[in-house]
Structures are given as structure tokens and as C-alpha cells.
């Protein structure tokens, strides 16, 4: 059987100026593992939490709890850019909005929203990326996406810079929220700074720095740590062997999904979903011990 030393969870605090792909490449070099998946990228100018799964644990990606996402944002008022962030060319300037107009706009940008993605985004239309079309000067119509913004908190203003912590669901573009805030107030705005502080149960406070990763000092967390939001069910030897063969085992608790854990080693055996009175393995890991 293959070695499981590189099956696990890695949290990285991405610095500004590097891409999410740069982080993945650094993790590949550090751990000698080619199979690495991520639970959402960050733009190069942004900082903060990247959630990576390595090795066989990449198969858990569809089952990660990534909501809510929490971002610390700085929005520059009075200027809109082509990319909706600080890296784009200025396309429009306007007088900065009043505090009352900002408060009203935030109310309108909270809850269930139909959000038009930024022109410079990875969205595909007819098989072509939006940012490729934008760079070539081609007009592309992007359909609105349904997103959810749970709340804006810690909102404060210092001149033309508005700070806020934004809590939202997956697929939300904070750049688009900044753009739409400017437009909603009759002004203009773009995203000047962004830091991801949280993705579901994962916190940037628990992440490893890029410097530590590059220096070879990062440590993987067990694959089981990728599933903290569902029940952990301990299996005896016989049930663990059944699960390793893809067979069901009795379900003793009322839950939709569970992490099935080897009673000897404490390692993740499988992610399973409820099927009647049984657990049906959906992602089976190698048993350790």
C-alpha cells in the first residue's frame, strides 16, 4: 500500500504578490506530492487563508464545509477601475458618497443577491474566460450569479477608505461588492485590500506562513481535520475492514454524513453518507494501523 505521509490538510496564510498557484507549487516541492487541491483561490493582491488538501485527501474537497467565508476588506471610494480592484486602470471617478448613502447601500448589498461577476474574472462564457475577453477588448455579457452576503460588520471610514469585515457564502466576489457599493451610492469604488480570515471552520490564525512552507517547516494536519463539522464515528476492526471494501456499516446516530474513524489509530477511514439505517462510504481512505 502507498505511504500516507502526504495525505492531509494544509492551511497557508498567503502573502500579497503571489498567486494561489504559486502556493500550490511551493507545497508540491515541500511535500513531494503532486496531487494538491484547494478550496478556493485568492487574487494575487489579496492575502490570507488558503485551504489545501494533499494526496488522497484531495478527494474530500467536495465535502469540505467552506461556509461562511469571512473577509477583511478595504474599499477605496470615489474611483472605479476596470478590474474592480487596485490593479486595474481607472475607468471612472466621482465625488465620494456620504456616510448615509454608504449605510443604505450596505443594506441593499446584504442577503440574497444576484451579482454580476467582475469583467476580469475566471467566469466562462461560450468556453472563454471573461478576463481573456476583457484583455483583448472584447465585450462579454456576464450573467448574474446568485450569492449570499450574511453581514457587513466592523464598518468604519477614514476619508475615502472604507473598512469592513464581510461574511458571505461561496462564489461571492468581494471586488464586485466594492464596485456595486460605489454605483449604489451614485459614486464609484474599488477594492483596495483584501484578506481572507475564515473559510467555514478553518481560520487564518491557524495557518502556516509562506516563508515556513518554502523553508520546509510546514506540517500537514491529518485528513480527519478536514471534516470537523460532521460527527466522527469510531469503528471497530470488523467495521473498518468492511468500510475499506466499500461496504456499508450500521448507522447508530441521526446525521446526514459522518467521518468514519479507525478505533485503533484514530485515522480517517472514510467520509460516509446516510443510507437508510447504514453508513454508505463515499470517499475511502487507507486505514492506518
In words, what does this structure look like?
By secondary structure, the protein is of the alpha+beta class. The chain folds into three domains: 8-64 and 202-224, 2-Layer Sandwich (Pseudouridine synthase); 69-199, 2-Layer Sandwich (Pseudouridine synthase), CATH 3.30.2350; 230-284, PUA domain (Archaeosine Trna-guanine Transglycosylase, Chain: A, domain 4, Roll). The chain is 18% helix and 37% strand. It contains six helices and 19 strands. The strands form four sheets. Strands 1, 2, 3, 4, 7, 10, 11, 12, 13 and 14 form a ten-stranded mixed beta sheet that branches. Strands 15-17-18-19-16 form a five-stranded mixed beta sheet. A two-stranded antiparallel sheet has the order 5-6. Strand 18 and strand 19 (278-284) form a beta hairpin. Helix 2 (99-108) crosses helix 4.
Return the CATH topology of the largest domain: Pseudouridine synthase
Rough outline: elongated
Number of domains: 3
> Which structural class best describes the helix and strand composition?
alpha+beta
Q: Report the mean per-residue pLDDT as an integer.
A: 92
The CATH homology group name of the largest domain: Pseudouridine synthase
Radius of gyration: 22 Å
The assigned CATH architecture of the largest domain is: 2-Layer Sandwich
- Tally of alpha and pi helices: 6
Amino acid at each position: 500500500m502507498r505511504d500516507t505521509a502526504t495525505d492531509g490538510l494544509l492551511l497557508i496564510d498567503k502573502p500579497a504578490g503571489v498567486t494561489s498557484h504559486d502556493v500550490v507549487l511551493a507545497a508540491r516541492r515541500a511535500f513531494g506530492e503532486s496531487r494538491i487541491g484547494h478550496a478556493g483561490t485568492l487574487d494575487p493582491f489579496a492575502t490570507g487563508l488558503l485551504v489545501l488538501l494533499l494526496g488522497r485527501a484531495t478527494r474530500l474537497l467536495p465535502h469540505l464545509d467552506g461556509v461562511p467565508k469571512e473577509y477583511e476588506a478595504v474599499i477605496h471610494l470615489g474611483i472605479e477601475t476596470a478590474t474592480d480592484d487596485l490593479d486595474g486602470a481607472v475607468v471612472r471617478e466621482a465625488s465620494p458618497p456620504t456616510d448615509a448613502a454608504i449605510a443604505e447601500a450596505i443594506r441593499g448589498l446584504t442577503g440574497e443577491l444576484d451579482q454580476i461577476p467582475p469583467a476580469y474574472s475566471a467566469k466562462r462564457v461560450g468556453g472563454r474566460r471573461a478576463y481573456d475577453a476583457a484583455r483583448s477588448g472584447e465585450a462579454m455579457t456576464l450573467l448574474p450569479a446568485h450569492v449570499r452576503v450574511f453581514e457587513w460588520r466592523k464598518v468604519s471610514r477614514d476619508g475615502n477608505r472604507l473598512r469592513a469585515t464581510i461574511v458571505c457564502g461561496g462564489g461571492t466576489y468581494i471586488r464586485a461588492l466594492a464596485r456595486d457599493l460605489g454605483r449604489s451610492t451614485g459614486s464609484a469604488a474599488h477594492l483596495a485590500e483584501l484578506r481572507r480570515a475564515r473559510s467555514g471552520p478553518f481560520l487564518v490564525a491557524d495557518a502556516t506562513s509562506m516563508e515556513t512552507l518554502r523553508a520546509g517547516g510546514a506540517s500537514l494536519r491529518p485528513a480527519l481535520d478536514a471534516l470537523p463539522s460532521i460527527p466522527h464515528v469510531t469503528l471497530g476492526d470488523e467495521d473498518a475492514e468492511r468500510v475499506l471494501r466499500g461496504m456499508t456499516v450500521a448507522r447508530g446516530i441521526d446525521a446526514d454524513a459522518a467521518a468514519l474513524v479507525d478505533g485503533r489509530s484514530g485515522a480517517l477511514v472514510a467520509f460516509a453518507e446516510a443510507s437508510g439505517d447504514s453508513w454508505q462510504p463515499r470517499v475511502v481512505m487507507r486505514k492506518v494501523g
